[in-house]
């Protein structure tokens, strides 16, 4: 069973990826209910934390029912990363993760996220600064390299392990690929099979079904899988994968009532955590995913994304149950 510092994880754990504007406490709560073994905050700017930016501070909120849970930070300045690690330590997460994988331009331009893949020496210095400044286990999430001609994950894994990280998650794409094309897990497996590597290695990228999860588990021999986009609006994927591992059978697909209940809980918990107005507005991006595949749903979708009143929204959910009670997925 993989261990990250003192954290004992189940055999072949399923991790929820840190996703900007998605992996907040309400969403993590749903994923935990449905089988996620280890979760992370949205990534947090080290500069924002030090400046006391309210949005960055809010992302530090974690709750005991989520544990084990990690907080993820990013940045390109050693001193800022070290200082933000101390701020993170104060809220007592189970681990601290460094994002060296985000391909988004505004992050890369600051020499952070996947931008650091072009400068492994800097990546090592940043990691070392964080490891030295915290008692928490430090982990890293990164990509294969900057582009196809500069895949350097083998060197990165060895050097980051040497400065003290305790687990590594590798997204099987380069920065140049962004989220396009296919992820290539053969590079991740090569890191895992390197005799010098003794920390847990987790794979990330394109896992969207129990069949694919089992195929990749058997084929690549990693310590666990991280799931990102496939969990958005579909937190059931974690337990579906676990059930398929154990039995070779599929769990029944979520019913309409299951979908409504998940969306309603997500909304209620969002309002509770963010305040009613912001909770309602920020929930709108999720409805398409919760109700994907339901025929003739457009009218209800429009109402869900335009209704501003809590009670009216809850009423729409009730109407959905009544209108689609006979629909089979």
UniProtKB/TrEMBL annotation:
Cofactor(s) demanded: FMN
> Looking at the record's lineage, which domain of life comes first?
Bacteria
Per UniProt, which keywords does this protein have? Answer: Flavoprotein, FMN, NADP, Nucleotide-binding, Oxidoreductase, RNA-binding, tRNA processing, tRNA-binding
Residues binding FMN: 72, 141, 171, 228-229
Record EC number: 1.3.1.-
Q: What class of enzyme is it?
A: oxidoreductase
For this protein, the record's InterPro entries field holds: Aldolase_TIM (IPR013785), DUS-like_FMN-bd (IPR035587), DUS_fam (IPR001269), DusB-like (IPR004652), tRNA-dHydroUridine_Synthase_C (IPR024036), tRNA_hU_synthase_CS (IPR018517)
Which Gene Ontology terms cover its molecular function? flavin adenine dinucleotide binding; tRNA binding; tRNA dihydrouridine synthase activity
The UniProt entry annotates the active site at: 102
Task: Identify the residues that the record assigns to the DUS-like FMN-binding domain, covering every copy.
Answer: 15-311
Recorded hits in Pfam families, A to Z, give: Dus
**Keyword RNA-binding: yes or no?**
yes
Protein's UniProt keywords contain ATP-binding = no
Q: Which PROSITE patterns match?
A: UPF0034
Catalytic activity from the UniProt record = a 5,6-dihydrouridine in tRNA + NADP(+) = a uridine in tRNA + NADPH + H(+); a 5,6-dihydrouridine in tRNA + NAD(+) = a uridine in tRNA + NADH + H(+)
Q: What does this protein do?
A: Catalyzes the synthesis of 5,6-dihydrouridine (D), a modified base found in the D-loop of most tRNAs, via the reduction of the C5-C6 double bond in target uridines.
Q: NCBIfam families under this entry?
A: nifR3_yhdG
- UniProt cross-references to PANTHER family, sorted A to Z: TRNA-DIHYDROURIDINE(47) SYNTHASE [NAD(P)(+)]-LIKE (PTHR45846)
The entry assigns this protein to a family as follows: Belongs to the dus family.
Q: What is this protein called?
A: tRNA-dihydrouridine synthase
Q: Which species is this UniProt entry from?
A: Flavobacterium fontis
């Amino acid at each position: 069973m993989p261990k990250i510092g003192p954290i004992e994880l189940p055999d072949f754990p399923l991790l929820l990826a840190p996703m900007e504007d998605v992996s907040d406490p309400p969403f993590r709560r749903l994923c935990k209910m449905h089988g996620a073994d280890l979760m992370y905050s949205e990534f947090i700017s080290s500069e924002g934390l030090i400046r006391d930016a309210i949005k960055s501070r809010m992302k530090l909120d974690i709750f005991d029912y989520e544990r084990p849970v990690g907080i993820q930070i990013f940045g390109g300045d050693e001193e800022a990363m070290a200082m933000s690690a101390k701020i993170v330590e104060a809220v007592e997460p189970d681990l601290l993760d460094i994002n060296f994988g985000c391909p988004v331009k505004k992050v890369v331009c600051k020499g952070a996220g996947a931008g650091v893949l072009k400068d492994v020496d800097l990546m090592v210095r940043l990691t070392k600064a964080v490891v030295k400044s915290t008692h928490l286990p430090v982990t890293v999430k990164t990509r294969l390299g900057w582009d196809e001609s500069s895949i350097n994950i083998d060197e990165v894994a060895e050097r980051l392990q040497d400065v003290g990280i305790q687990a590594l998650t590798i997204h099987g794409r380069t920065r140049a690929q962004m989220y396009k094309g296919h992820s290539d897990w053969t590079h991740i497996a090569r890191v895992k099979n390197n005799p010098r590597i003794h920390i847990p290695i987790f794979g990330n990228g394109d896992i969207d079904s129990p069949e694919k999860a089992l195929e990749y588990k058997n084929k690549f021999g990693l310590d666990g899988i991280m799931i990102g986009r496939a969990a958005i609006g579909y937190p059931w994927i974690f337990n579906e994968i676990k059930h398929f591992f154990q039995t070779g059978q599929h769990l029944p697909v979520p019913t309409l009532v299951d979908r409504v209940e998940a969306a309603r809980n997500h909304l209620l918990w969002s309002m509770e955590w963010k305040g009613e107005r912001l909770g309602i507005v920020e929930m709108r991006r999720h409805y398409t995913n919760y109700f994907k595949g339901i025929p003739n749903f457009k009218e209800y979708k429009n109402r869900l994304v335009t209704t501003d009143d809590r009670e009216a929204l809850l009423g729409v959910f009730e109407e959905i149950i009544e209108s689609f009670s006979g629909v089979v997925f």
